[in-house]
Amino acid sequence: MATAGAPMIDAAEARLREEIARFCRVTWDRGLVSAAGGNLSARLGAADLFLITPSGVALRDTEPSDLVTIDLAGRKVAGPDRYVPSKEMLMHTAVYAARPATRAVAHLHPPHAIAFGIRGEPIPLMTVTSEERLHLTPVVPPATSGSRALSDGVVTALETAPADTQVLLLARHGILAWGGSVQQACDIADLAEYTAKIAIAHAALPGRRRVLDISVPNVAGMHVYPGDPVPRVDAVRRIQAGDVCNLSLLTMGSHTGTHVDAPYHFLADGPRLGDVPLDRMVGEALVADLRGRPTIDAAALADVDLRPGDILLCRTDNSQRWEAAEFQRDFVYLTEDAARLLVARGVRAVGMDYLSIERFGSADFPVHRTLLGAGVFVIEGLDLRQASPGRYTLVCLPLSFPDLDGAPARAILLS
After folding, report:
1. What are the E-state strand segments in 214-319?
2. Residue 4: pLDDT band by 50, 70, 90 thresholds?
């Protein structure tokens, strides 16, 4: 319960209150918050009690005496009667519960970092400092501000994130940073914003991006999965025949060459291509060198540096199979345990460098069903012969046939 008047506090708490109030103004001055947004908290001594900024008060105006004391469940224990704790308190307590060594948490709204959260992408670690201190910036799915769903999303992200993670991007809602002190939590948030600025500036530099086409050419004699339609190109109009222009009729299956599988491909009631957000196939991609293996199982992926939200592109011995004269039935494929691992790791899409991600001759297609059923989209028919292992931005845009089970796509990597 809130106490009337000003409760007695010891010297340590007084210093902590001053520190929180000071960094409220620091984060405001650094442009990490605006209006009444953002909130800071810190642990009181060794107990599961925490000081947190009050709801509705701009960090610019927060005084030491304004802070509210809460417990690990988010209940108000002490503080001015006129104030309630920040409505984001459950996110704070989720961090304290999951990372017991944490002494302070900062929820701020830095604009450049938010841009990556909106795109659902971790901030690219462009500098040595960001690699050493940020490690990874997982994205928490969007949810209503102050809701249980948002704090649950934070809990899930903390459960799957590496132990050295110190910042989360909240999709469309800012960032959450923590550390061993109020200053450290705010410094981590500041570094995340600074790194995001550098990444955006770097991407805008002319001539800095190399475009690598990883699509298979759609030509006569190309590899076609047995039983699928053979692509045809028929002349409709030809300038040489006296027509005003050249015009062709294309006939091909929806899974010709480089293509995207919609869940409807194997799930009778699954989303069709038009229901698949394009951002599932545009974003940070990891090309993993998996050559020399007849299959890609969970053990093969155990040491792959996957991050939540990654698009995994498997470079296998399949890429060399495109050089053969006809379709190759002994292609490398994913196993069921690999599919389950990828779902658990939170990847958003998986790409394979041949015409199927599934074992040839499969009767029930469990890999497709596992991935597509969990919302992990499948890109097949890639040519990764020229793609060195590493991180890129993938742009894979299927033709817009919204009611179909899939469609051919043009896929490029930006490095």
Report:
1. 232-237, 247-251, 259-261, 282-289, 295-296, 311-315
2. very low
Residue 1: what pLDDT?
Answer: 40
Out of 109, 259, 265, 368, pick the active-site residue: 265
Determine whether 265 is an active site residue. yes
Distances (CA, A) of 124 to 187, 296, 297, 307: 18, 27, 28, 12
Residues whose CB falls within 8 Å of the CB of residue 289, separated by 6 or more in sequence, listed in order: 315, 389
- Supply the DSSP string of 383-402, one letter for each residue: --TT--SEEEEEEEEE---T
CA 45 to chain centre: 35
* CATH superfamily label, 213-414: Putative cyclase (3.50.30.50)
Mean pLDDT for the chain overall: 92
Residue 309: left if φ>0, alpha if ψ -120 to 50, beta else—which one? Answer: left
Positions of E strands within 79-156: 104-108, 139-140
Q: Where do the structural domains in the chain lie, given as residue ranges?
A: 11-204, 213-414
Burial class (CB in 10 A: 0-12, 13-18, 19+), 60: middle
pLDDT of residue 136: 84
Residue 80 belongs to what H/E stretch? Answer: none
| pLDDT tens digits for range 304-346 | 988 888 999 999 999 999 999 999 999 999 999 999 999 999 9
Task: Identify the bridge partners of residue 383 per DSSP, sorted by sequence position.
Answer: none
What whole-number percentage of the chain has pLDDT above 90? 76
Q: In degrees rounded to 5, what are phi and psi of residue 7?
A: -70, 155
According to the model, what pLDDT value does residue 3 have?
Answer: 44
For residue 218, give every residue at least 6 positions away whose Cβ sits within 8 Å of its Cβ, in sequence order, or none.
Answer: 231, 252, 256, 257, 408
- Fold exhibited by the domain 11-204: L-fuculose-1-phosphate Aldolase (3.40.225)
